[in-house]
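Hey, resending since the last one bounced:
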Amino acid sequence: MPASHDLVLFGATGFTGRLTARYLAQNAPGDCRWALAGRNRAKLAAVREELTASFPHCADLPLLEADAADPAALRALAADTKVVITTVGPYLRHGEPLVAACAETGTDYVDLSGEPEFVDRMYVRHDATARRTGARLVHACGFDSVPHDLGVLFTVGLLPEGVPLSVDGYVWSNATFSGGTLASALGAFSRGPQMLQAARERRRAETRPAGRRVSLPLGSVRRQGLLGAWAVPLPTIDTQIVGRSAAALERYGPHFTYRHAARTRSLPLALGGIAGVAGLVGLAQIPPARRWLSSRLAPGEGPDEARRARSRFSVRFLGEGGGRRVATEVSGGDPGYDETAKMLAESALSLAFDDLPKTSGQVTTAQAMGSALTARLRKAGLEFRVTHTGGVEAGV
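The structure tokens again:
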């Protein structure tokens, strides 16, 4: 029996969920059959009413009730759609039943998770099932990690084939974050040993590319002369996602190296950022302090439209290989919410409607959607541009 929906947005009543719903209302193709899902029908109806005020065609948008802790309801939801989008986090606490439902029913899945432990555990537990059923499980389809994953893919495509390649990524943003993002970050910071254990379990289960090598050095605080900035290593999921794309795609060469860093104009700011993150990690280990920090910004709350309008992001990439150097940039507006909603929605639309390479299991955006998603995001307003090219001898 064919699925009733092309897309289902699960978690439509949350802060990012509402932004994603609004993006779909404005940008989904007219023949796209999509629905709002969550545990509270009254709140879903309120979201639909908000959408209808601006987009009358949303008046009949289907509302689907399902709780993140109800596997039977989630399985029924997944079985009746092509792609499920979920914004319900923290994913480590709420996410696995929906991943399992999609893996079992062969339904494509996209989320916003930047939680390494969650992504690793989902690989160990559900990748094999998804490969068998044909489901594509695509995590990190927001600012974590679309600009980095597709930005590296874009950069690699400008370098010679069949040779060792290296890319450095440097990210900057002036954006703020929501309560849900804070809750996810604090949860991840408090689970260092469990995160390392999940990574070890994944390494034991994961196959390595034959005859090829991927290196992901952390690097150190350093001056980047070409960019006129200081680089501060970022041990985020973005590096892991880029590495998995490189392992999956031969275009990244026989030996691929990637380093990921934040960029800032001054050394004091760089050192202050390190101290701030270290302090947050330390406080996250203390349950009362973690609860107090979480209470400062409750899940479901986030920056208002005026603040988001002032927010920008830029990721600069410096690539080298085969005697050639290239510099590129991926940039856009508010990364955590407006652009993340765009990236998440376009990722799902790409899975639902684009002619893509045949993949299954837990896959990355570069591996599953690649240039098709890049084209969608460019059309939607994100910029992918080449800033410099040249030979190694002459510099970039």
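The radius of gyration is 20 Å.

Sorry for the duplicate.
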